Amino acid sequence: MKLRKLGLTGLWLSLTCSMPAWSQAVDPNLGRNLAANCANCHGTNGVSVGGMPALAGQSRDSLARAMKEFREGKRPATIMHQLSKGYSDEQIDLIAAYLSAQKAR
Amino acid sequence: MTNNFRRSFLKASVGGVFSAGLGGLTLSGCAAAPARPIGRVMVIGGGFGGATAAKYLRMWSGGTIEVFLIERNTQFVSCPISNLVLGGSRTLADITRGYQGLRELGVQVLHDEVSAIDPAKKLVKFRTKFADMSYDRLIVSPGVDFMFDQVEGLNAEAQKTVLHAWRAGPDTAALRRQLEAMPDGGVYLLSIPRAPYRCPPGPYERACQVAFYFKNAKPRSKVIILDANEDVTSKGPLFKAAWKDLYGGIVDYRGGTEVKAVNARDSTVRTDFDTLKGNVLNVLPPMRAGDIARTSGLITANDRWCGVDWLTMESAAQKGIHVLGDSTLSAPAMPKSGHMANQHGKLAAAAIIELMNGRQPSMAPMVANTCYSFVSDKEVVHVASVHRYDAAQKTLVAVAGSGGVSAQRNELEGSYASAWAQNIWSDMLG
User: Fold this and answer.
1) How do residues B65-116 score in pLDDT, each as one tens digit?
2) Which of B238, B268, B286 is the last residue of a domain?
3) What is the CATH number of the domain that holds B106?
4) Within this chain, do residues B250 and B303 fall inside the same structural domain, yes or no?
5) How far apart are CA B100 and CA B48, in angstroms?
6) Nearest by CB to B403, which of A27, A50, A82?
7) Chosen from B427, B428, B429 to mutate, greatest number of chain A CBs within 10 A
8) Which CATH number is A27-100's, of 1.20.1560.10, 2.60.40.10, 3.50.30.10, 1.10.760.10?
9) Which residue among B343, B346, B419 sits closest to A52, beta carbon to beta carbon?
10) Which of A24, A37, A98, A102 to mutate to test the interface with B (most CBs of B within 10 A)?
11) B60 touches chain A (CB under 8 A)
């Protein structure tokens, strides 16, 4: 799994430091709801039934970094460079936090 | 969905009381509702919107909401990928799934049709098997119905041979049989209504799939596309490249050409310019929200579509009723697609759970869309978009700079498209 290989090689900024808006968010389910946008292709809660990378249980760091690299055109993509541009850094971090906490099958 | 979730869920359901409304009816194989549900949601329509909403209501409420899904068909047949059945590279069995996965999540699936909704009494009335049932909130996700009367001559008799096959299932198989029975050198006429209609790129994918079949089996045959729209409404350059490169001499595209009348006996269609004869006529009539939305007073726009509050998918016309999918009056740049209906289902599920718990639904919902189209049996082109709620405009709008289409048709996305189908069918059906 490519994402896993990229793993925890970088410095992870804590979510609470980098995202003041999140800590004040009225909606505690925002990460869950945003991550549900991934499920259509990558499976419910990121548990892929096949043919797409599974996202559940990947490290937060690698998930967030992959999305940001897609967005910045630093990672080859067919579609993810276009979809990732729909989300802010804060939203990507919320999605990564939610999916990393899901149990991989 | 983890097995652990299923197990703990089923355990919680043991000993539950199957409450109210069914008057002595037994539903073998259905998990009973938890002992003290906080309320009941009924979902009309088990397609991409309704099935997804039913599943996510159960999953995200931790089983505290009782969910009934009403669907007339005992199996789900997917419209996405169904054009490949016409092309011959997939079978109907490949695109058919059951509702067992939802039952295992505690969704109580009722195979019947709804004859009427009483919004004042919060009551659903059934056509055949079941007694009236009450709901706390209702989801209506009926897909589209067809405005046959907009095409002269497309009466009940003509509809027996002039198919739309824009709902996957028996009609898909019937249209395939018509194509198989057609002689080499024959003409397939495909008529596309003015947008909005279900699945913007779908007709152009269908033209590719029929051309793919002709190229291999009946190379002297023609595909003539009569499009009421001025030009191809989705992925235009990519489809036109496929027609030119892969199906030169087979596909003949005519934009700005609306079919006004059909003569089934002569096998002809009439446009403003011409009368054309075809061996197979495939006429997609103009579409509108499903019948139950119309009879329930949910249609608010042009006598065709249902306006909704995009924070909750709640109907603009009826409180307590949420409308999903193709039936909705689409937000700007939002396609009527199965993928988008799935997203509507999740948005509604999240909002309904908050509302039923007396909390404020999210003020910042987001949805995304991906439509893959097969231009041959292996090569695919996509269109994608991301949409956010805009408080000032009170609607979902495309996020600036996001989305786009494939650089060119390719086989890698062919494998992704197949995987997309498997994952979204699983995401909606358990």
Assistant:
1) 999 999 999 999 999 999 999 999 999 999 999 999 999 999 999 999 999 9
2) B286
3) 3.50.50.60
4) no
5) 16
6) A82
7) B427
8) 1.10.760.10
9) B419
10) A37
11) yes
Last residue of a domain, one of B232, B253, B286: B286
Residue B321 has what DSSP assignment? E
Which of B42, B11, B15 lies closest to B107 in space, CA to CA?
A: B42
- Cα atoms in the Cβ-side hemisphere of radius 13 Å centred on B28: 0
Q: Which residues of A touch B399 (CB under 8 A)?
A: 85-87
Tell me the C-alpha distance between B382 and B398, whole Å. 17
Asked whether residue B206 falls in the same domain as residue B218, the answer is: yes
Residues A40, B4: C-beta atoms closer than 8 Å: no
- At a CB cut-off of 8 Å and minimum separation 6, what does B108 contact? B27, B30, B31, B33, B66, B67, B68, B69
Q: What is the pLDDT of residue B36?
A: 76
Task: Name the residue among B2, B350, B427 with its Cβ closest to that of A40.
Answer: B427
For residues B321 and B138, what is the distance between their CA atoms, to the nearest angstrom? 5
Would you call B5 an interface residue with chain A, using a CB distance cutoff of 8 Å? Answer: no
Smallest CA–CA distance, residue B354 to chain A, in Å, is: 10
- Distance, in Å, from the CA atom of A56 to the CA atom of B326, rounded to the nearest integer, reads 30
CA angle A75, A44, B135 (to 5 degrees): 140
A41 is written with which tokens? 């292709």
Shortest Cα–Cα distance, B132 to chain A (Å): 33
Q: What is the pLDDT of residues B114-166, one digit of tens each?
A: 999 999 999 999 999 999 999 999 999 999 999 999 999 999 999 999 999 99
Range of the domain at B245: 148-286
**In chain A, pLDDT over 90 holds for what percent of residues?**
73
Distance between CA atoms of B270 and B130, rounded to whole angstroms? Answer: 45
Q: For B382, which of A37, A79, A91 is closest by C-beta distance? A: A79
- Could you identify the residue written with the tokens 């709901």? B135
